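User: Hi! I have a protein structure encoded as tokens and I'd like to know what sequence might fold into it. I'm fairly new to this, so please keep things simple.
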């Protein structure tokens, strides 16, 4: 069937070509068959239609792209609408946290400063107390008047210790004991009862002491050491002429109830 159609078309074209040549030879313009002219226009129209359709497709694609862009813009808009809320909250929270931290730091610093001030005040008070009790009061308690009192007490006690008579032993020992304290008082009591008293009665002894000088060597608020210079004369029934003995004694004094008493007595 296809081959017959091609043969018919070939015959038609051959006849048309022969007719055209004949008209050209006769000087007549050949007539162009409408079918041959219309077909290319149809083809062009079809191509234009195709192009239009392609343009339409492109337009539709552009429209789709625009719609996609619109969707993206709407999504962006949605995101932008949603985003500021947490950002604003975070921006509001950060300053509050910073202010809270700053307030806590200031509170901690103020407490630290207060503690330091209290410590400084306590140290200052302690230092002032130490200066008062260790420097000021000792100076008041060891001034010249105190030295004179200590020297006088040491001199009076030494005189009482080294002065006694066989006729007045009990009174003399009692007077001496009023200047003594502590272990030395106990020692003196025992020594006079066991040694000095019996010897003095037996020999009719009489001893008289006279302090020629006293110098305070150490002085503290409650204690002192005094060097006492003593001249001592002694008589007995066997030696009625007085015998002079010069001696020096380290006398340790202790303040007891505002009285300076002898607690040690060491002859040199």
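Assistant: Happy to help. Inverse folding works backwards from shape to sequence: for each of the 268 positions I chose a residue that suits the local structure. Here it is:
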């Amino acid at each position: 069937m296809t081959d017959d159609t091609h043969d018919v078309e070939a015959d038609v074209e051959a006849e048309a070509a022969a007719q055209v040549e004949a008209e050209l030879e006769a000087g007549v313009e050949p007539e162009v068959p409408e079918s041959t002219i219309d077909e290319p226009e149809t083809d062009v129209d079809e191509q234009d239609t195709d192009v239009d359709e392609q343009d339409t497709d492109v337009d539709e694609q552009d429209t789709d792209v625009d719609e996609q862009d619109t969707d993206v813009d709407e999504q962006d808009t949605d995101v932008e609408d949603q985003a500021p809320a947490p950002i604003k909250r975070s921006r509001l929270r950060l300053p509050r946290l910073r202010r809270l931290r700053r307030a806590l730091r200031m509170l901690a610093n103020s407490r630290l400063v207060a503690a330091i001030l209290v410590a400084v005040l306590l140290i200052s008070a302690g230092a002032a107390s130490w200066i008062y009790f260790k420097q000021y009061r000792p100076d008041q308690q060891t001034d010249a008047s105190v030295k004179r009192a200590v020297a006088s007490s040491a001199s009076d006690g030494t005189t009482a210790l080294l002065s006694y008579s066989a006729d007045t032993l009990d009174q003399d020992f009692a007077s001496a004991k009023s200047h003594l304290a502590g272990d030395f008082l106990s020692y003196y009591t025992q020594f006079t009862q066991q040694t000095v008293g019996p010897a003095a009665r037996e020999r009719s002894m009489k001893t008289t002491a006279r302090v020629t000088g006293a110098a305070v060597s150490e002085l503290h608020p409650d204690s002192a050491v005094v060097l006492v210079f003593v001249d001592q004369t002694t008589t007995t029934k066997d030696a009625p002429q007085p015998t002079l003995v010069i001696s020096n004694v380290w006398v340790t004094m202790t303040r007891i109830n505002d009285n300076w008493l002898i607690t040690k007595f060491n002859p040199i």
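A useful reference point when you look it over: The two ends are 170 Å apart (CA to CA). Feel free to ask if any position seems puzzling.
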